[in-house]
Amino acid sequence: MPKDGIGASTKRREDVRFLTGNGNYTDDINIRGQAYVHFLRSDVAHGTLNGVDTSAAEGMPGVIRIFTGEDFAEVGGIPCGWQVTDRHGEPMQEPAHPVLARGKVRHVGDPIAAVVAETREQARDAAEAIMPDITDLPPVMDMKEALKDGATKVHDDLTSNLCYDWGFVEENKGAVDEAIKNAAHVTTLELVNNRLVPNAMEPRVAVGDYNRSTGDHTLYTTSQNPHVIRLLMGAFVLGIPEHKLRVVAPDVGGGFGSKIYHYAEEAFCTFAAKALNRPVKWTCSRSEAFISDAHGRDHVTKIELALDADNNFTAVRTETYANMGAYLSTFAPSIPTWLHGTLMAGNYKTPNIYVNVKAVFTNTVPVDAYRGAGRPEATYQLERVIDKAARELGVDPIALRRQNFITEFPYATPVAVEYDTGDYNATMDKLSEIADLSGFEARLQESKARGKLRGLGVNCYIEACGIAPSNLVGQLGARAGLYESATVRVNATGGITVMTGSHSHGQGHETAFPQVVAEMLGIDASMVEIEHGDTANTPMGMGTYGSRSIAVGGSAMVRATEKIIAKTKKIAAHLLEASEADIELKDGQFSVAGTDKSVAWGDVTLAAYVPHNYPLEDLEPGLEETAFYDPANFTYPSGAYACEVEVDPDTGKVTIERFAAADDFGNIINPMIVSGQVHGGLAQGIGQALLEQCSYDSDGQLLSASYMDYTMPRADDVPFYQVDHSCQTPCTHNPLGVKGCGEAGAIGSPPAVVNAVVDALQRAGHSNVTHIDMPLTPSRVWSAMQG
Amino acid sequence: MAQVSMTVNGKPASGDIEGRTLLVDFLRDGLGLTGTHVGCDTSQCGACVVHVDGKAIKACTVFAAECEGSSVTTIEGIAAEDGTMSKVQDAFQTHHGLQCGFCTPGMVMSAEALLQENPTPSEAEIREYLEGNICRCTGYHNIVKAILAASGQDVSKIAAE
Questions:
Q1: A460 shares a domain with A344
Q2: Do A125 and A225 belong together in one domain?
Q3: Is this prediction's ipTM beyond 0.90?
Q4: Residue-number span of the structural domain to which A36 is assigned
Q5: pLDDT band at residue B161 using 50, 70 and 90 as cut-offs
Q6: How far apart are the CA of A431 and the nearest CA of chain B, in angstroms?
Q7: DSSP letters along A646-676, please?
Q8: Where are the domains of chain B?
Q9: Is the pTM of this model over 0.80?
Q10: C-beta atoms surrounding A51 within 10 Å
């Protein structure tokens, strides 16, 4: 058996460098002669930019050059990677997105000017001396107000602030309206899915470098997908062909979606490095990150759930306002639509579903994918409305869910996706066991004895991962393919280097990916090394997000390894003077079936590079194979989560007493890493439910613009979690049977927390409290208890 | 510009600084010790925790000039000369107490300081001590577990890997 193959909780090999201070993050990269850039950003939400007076700053110590929007007049804007078509068949409204603001500023943080200087401090000092001439305009902040006739427009050249009005599935609408009209019971819930700031702990950094003698550009950047940045920035912004542009994303300190997108600062540093013939470095401060990293969520939703007299779900109808912010970030239009509407069936066999989404421009930071991306928004509203319905009907919320579970697979939902596998009763059974649901009553009494209110919240989730089939997403408006790639290079002495288009920024690919190759070849995982993050030495790949790396990137690696196996068997057959069909590969040995003749892995790999005794007339020497894998479908991880809270009746403070997660991720490569992924997602979901709120005031000023004001979950805000992933219904359409695990925790946990708090209050006699909007701060919970 | 001299990880270190140069910037930019990270600008995240004269501090809260003559230990000075990791570092790896690794140096430096003050902390004491260290990846589960394990306490009953 191979050491550290599939299913082993192998310790992570990347940890040693991180634990000893030897990581290589983008800000650790310094190039001889580099200059530093500081961006002057708008401090008003909306205004006419009449001009930028840089004269006082020009002569300040160390200043090399000051750039404004006029310097980018001949340069493309920041592109959007997804075009949504609206209910009427019209394309979304797509505004220009300049690298540096021209004509108008549209959110606090919009970059106006960039000062390049000899030191970081000199650049910052000089930026303070720049005088932008801005005439304030009324800020567009509230989405519903923004859509009213005569509302101030964020983009003057668009017809309104409406990006698109999307209906899905439009043909279902009549049947849904009819089902709701005829329902025995309709539960309605209006809610807000609070705006969040992703807050990867490493702020963004970009270092542009240019070699005038060769014309080669290099960009070092904090990215989840360096090939995507190379294509977007090269082709659409700066006009640099891929072979003259290298993008490197070295160790990256977390992403959670916020490092998918192509940002203006990357284009600036690449552009300025050539213009100045010097490397140019930008390091984002945390305060700057709050006003320049894409935010997440920010939906305002009304959902209606219709049931028949036997409590079977008959229809779901939703209307959502989704905030796009001031510009369209790279994948923003797809999040409230294709990653949200398609999940509105959840785990349930609801026959009629209609989703309406109005995407709106406002004078706020652009909003795009944040861990889960659309799927948390779908799960939250559905699982909250089901809980509310159970309460209205006086039935057990778990029983109501079980009654409506999809139980036969494959299952085609009314919202255009087909779930391949799942077993929702199994995960609910497992949840009941690990959460000790039968012990809740005793714990409730114990809490009561201490004067605390206790509540239990349970919910399910499903997500669409392994993003995504290229031909399908192309039809849906994606301006990219979503395959993944791998090159497996077997070296002469048998060691292997895998170059993957996936990118690891905490997920542990350097450990988990070798486990797969080791399993396939029967060799130790220590013989396999992963290269990622550098367009110069990895095949074109789409990177890491949407829980896609093992499902899509891992599958590409499997396909490339299969090609290696096929070739090595040919070589082994030659060496063993046997028929290729009789060659077996096991535990790193090639043997002839039914004989004791064998040849070792290393002898075969050496023969490939020293082809003295080798079938050169039939086979090329060398041993390196590449595969691109395009998934046939999404994958559909699912699960059931339970949260127990205590509420302090005097203050409204909520504490998470227990949290259990039973997930079905299909097959699992490294259980330790999978658990870690769930833990992190749970903390982010608990953070959304209890603590985190990105707040703007009515003037468009960001109130929560630092860790003093934006409440990040800390160690004493969360408990130890009970997680389980032993329920496994393998994916049917990828070679590993894997589904992906990166986002589940953040998708499944917010409704569990809110369900639990509402339950606690209801049990304490606050029967009028049917919903509280996230985050459930002490103030909000206390106010709810006051009626 | 002024000169500052201190002992860093047991070796003498000096360099030119501005009056406003923070210790963290001197360590990273002046000495090339990039293991100490900067995750915020309000002294909240703890990615820059180092030990100054034996006490854990956030290196963004002190000017380099204030550390004249001090003995500073950074994450690069925690493992043994031959690379053998400390008990805390080893426990973080064994119990998967890190993912992206960005907060990790500060977490390790805080954990080392905690165990010096309190060799067998309770779960609650660990969680409270880590109030000043933010991690966005791990949900803290395996960090708390690793610190319990590093202190020699039994963690076999704590759920999951």
A1: yes
A2: yes
A3: yes
A4: 31-137+201-254+259-290
A5: very low
A6: 14
A7: EE-TTT--EEEEEEEEEEE-BS-S-HHHHHH
A8: 2-77, 87-150
A9: yes
A10: 11
